[in-house]
Design a protein that fits this description.
368 residues, alpha+beta, Creatine Amidinohydrolase, 2 domains, three-stranded antiparallel β-sheet, 7 helices, 15 strands, 17% strand, globular, Creatinase/aminopeptidase-like, aminopeptidase, Pept_M24, protease, transit peptide
């Protein structure tokens, strides 16, 4: 129970506080003006003076911090609205019919249903026999993505890119993994400008200054390889170029902290720190995943700060695929149930690699 003296000290402080704090501690101007200037702690006892001064300092710091946070927020909002060249909102084009795949090409099991498959709880760890198969699938995915990038120019449609990618994959004896996955109608994802991910190729022509993420996954000899990259179309403004560059750097830095025994949470921490240095936001709703003989499995890879437990294991394969935006991380999805855009129309960029965990680090499989 509090002593009479301590109650008296507290009461004195509350009375003094009310003389210059007003009725609320929420206003950022509480410590500006005559009341604070006219107040003198010299009339108080030593304990009272220490109590008042200590608490004034604490409250002042909180208010000063609030003012600083508000100032930074206003500056960021101002920069966000003026930094990027405003582009017309993305509009849906016409989606052409699904392309056929020859009967002799092995197909993944999820084609038996149009329902979205459940995430497998299996962590995919490969032995000496499985690793070469994973490498072959990922190397093909990387070559296809590189080829797709050469097609990008103003006036080209994303549907034309899809057709070219589809042909290259089946000519290699592989199956385009997105085709038919949960009813997805195309062989590749093409996400333009404010589209975060899962864009469906259609008749829309690319415009000068667009950015486009192309996400390629192939199913070769029973193994999936998955990779994506954001490309520039024509004359892209410097601010958007920087968003794309920083997103790629986030992926590279995240891969650099991966190795046998490392915590998965290190990935999100690394990505968030680098993105925040450039005042970008990391999308939380879309994640990386285990990959191998199964398209999507545990572990779920979170790209933002988190405390999700779990450690990486030698021989394990998974994707890291951060999405950064220059504005809101909130999203809206078109009625096709796939195409996902930033809620405020701000540009978004994404990069993805499939990696193999080794004893000393991580090997990027989706390179050639």
């Amino acid at each position: 129970m509090a002593s009479a003296a301590s109650i008296s000290h507290a009461s004195s402080f509350l009375q003094l506080s009310s003389s210059f704090l007003g009725d609320s501690l929420s206003s950022p101007t509480l410590f500006i003006g005559p009341p604070l200037k006219n107040f003198s702690p010299s009339t108080l006892s030593g304990k009272q003076r220490h109590f008042v001064q200590k608490n004034l300092v604490i409250i002042s710091k909180r208010i000063s911090g609030l003012e600083e946070a508000m100032r930074i927020k206003r500056e960021r909002e101002l920069r966000t609205t003026t930094r990027f060249r405003r582009r017309p909102p993305l509009r849906r084009g016409k989606v052409s019919p699904r392309l056929p795949v020859p009967d002799h090409i092995p197909k993944p099991p999820y084609l038996n249903t149009t329902l979205l498959p459940e995430l497998s709880s299996e962590h995919q760890i490969h032995d000496a026999e499985g690793i070469p198969h994973m490498k072959a699938a990922c190397e093909l995915a990387a070559r296809v993505l590189d080829y797709a990038g050469t097609l990008i120019r103003p006036s080209v449609t994303t549907d034309e890119i899809d057709k070219a990618v589809h042909k290259m994959i089946i000519d290699a004896g592989a199956y385009p993994s997105p085709l038919g996955y949960g009813g997805f109608p195309k062989s590749v994802c093409t996400s333009v400008n404010e589209c975060m991910c899962h864009g469906i190729p259609d008749s829309r022509q690319l415009q000068d200054g667009d950015i486009i993420n192309i996400d390629v996954t192939v199913f070769l000899n029973g193994y999936h390889g998955d990779t994506s990259k954001t490309f520039l179309c024509g004359n892209v403004d410097d601010a958007t170029k920087r968003l794309v560059k920083v997103t790629e750097e986030c992926l590279e830095r995240a891969i650099s902290v991966c190795k046998d025994g490392a915590n998965f949470m290190n990935i999100g921490k690394t990505i968030s720190e680098h993105a925040e240095n450039f005042e970008y936001n990391v999308v939380e709703q879309f994640v990386g995943h285990g990959i191998g003989t199964i398209f999507h499995s545990e572990p779920i890879i979170l790209h933002y700060r988190n405390e999700k437990p779990g450690c990486m294991v030698e021989g394990q394969t998974f994707t890291i695929e951060p999405i950064l935006t220059a504005g809101s991380i909130e999203y809206k999805t078109w009625s096709d149930n796939w195409t996902t855009l930033t809620a405020d129309g701000s540009p978004a960029a994404q990069f993805e690699h499939t990696i193999l965990i080794t004893r000393t680090g991580a090997e990027i499989l989706t390179k050639f």
